[in-house]
Amino acid sequence: MILRVMKNSALSAKIHAMSGTALHQKDYDALMRLHTVPAVAAYLKENTRYQNALKDAVTTTLHRGRLEQLLHAQILTDILALLHYTDTDSTFFLKALEMQDGIEKLKVFLRLLHIGHPEQITKTATDFPLGNKQVKVEDLAQITTFSALMDLIKPTPYHQALRSFSGDPKRQELFYLEVALDSYWAQLIHRYAKKYLSSEEAKLALKLYGTEADLNNLIFLLRCKERFQMTQEEIYACIIPIYYRLTEQIITEIVTCPSVNDAFKIIHEKTPYGLAFHENDRFLEKRKNEYMAQMYRRIGALHPYSIQAAISYVHLRRIEINNIVSIIEGIRYGLKPEQISEYLIGYSKEEVES
């Protein structure tokens, strides 16, 4: 413990300083009362830690896609800033976060390719690393087929995750491609934790990412019961093969139970994730993100000298940026502040003034 404190004291101080600039409740309140995307951009530039990210932006003409690009690019900036304060083993693990960011952008592109508008990737993403390769969004925008995408990512680790879909257009459905990337990521991060981290650090990492994998599997199973028409074999094939506090027996019980209400009952009675799900609240992804956000904060508070405090910080930053994006979307659709607040993670104010 003393050695870890000595080794990561500079990292802990950096995380503390960066966390101190996070958005506050009053910032969310102010943003939700605005009426245009340029107004949101101006507030962020003038009053928050996004001043540097938006320093070259002309906020009066900034459109939604470009604003989101600049905000999401801040995640990579934070990761690079933290890398300066880590040792070699931890650096490898933090670089895995870069890979996760690349996977998320690759999933965005797959969705755009699926609807026939790959060129829109230039409006929603910036260049990003895929393994040791830097992928330019201009190159992605020129791709119109799955086989062309596979050629582009061939030098990267993600080619391995998707190569089984090559040559079989019937299997190249968006849902299965995203599941394959999620499964690849979950298995990768577990290998990284065991390979590069100390036993104590690895235990924390496996708790964090194992919980996330459990929750993603439960959401998938609940969605299957609620709306998907899939055989049991298809369901098992899409489950992330990483269990933390779930078991194969519980997974089987949920897969074979007759209804979504029965699935909720099994989750509440036989798993530790009952608080994460409620049958009267079907905003499953939001409840999962709330659960994970609480875990990130606990890890940051209880283990400030752990590399997981850095990991937790990055995830909380990503949640903050997604909250801003939700506010932008709410403003575009004319939602009232109290309606927008329902989509925000970690927003607990009971009453929002219009």
Strand content of the residues, in percent? under 5%
Q: SS-based structural class?
A: mainly alpha
CATH architecture of the domain at 1-85 and 314-349: Orthogonal Bundle
> Quick one: overall form?
globular
Kindly state the number of beta strands: 2
Order of helices and strands: HHHHHHEEHHHHHHHHHHH
Oligomer: single chain
* Helical residue percent band: 55-70%
CATH fold label of the domain at 1-85 and 314-349: Topoisomerase I, Chain A, domain 4
**What is the C-level CATH assignment of the domain at 1-85 and 314-349?**
Mainly Alpha
CATH superfamily of the domain at 1-85 and 314-349: ATP synthase (C/AC39) subunit, domain 3
Estimate the mean pLDDT confidence.
Answer: 89
Low-confidence stretches: none
Radius of gyration: 21 Å
What composes the largest sheet? 2 strands, antiparallel
InterPro entries: ATPase_csu/dsu_sf (IPR036079), ATPase_V0-cplx_csu/dsu (IPR002843), V-ATPase_V0D/AC39_subunit (IPR050873), V-type_ATPase_csu/dsu_dom_3 (IPR044911)
Pfam family, one: vATP-synt_AC39
Organism: Ructibacterium gallinarum
Protein name: V-type ATPase subunit
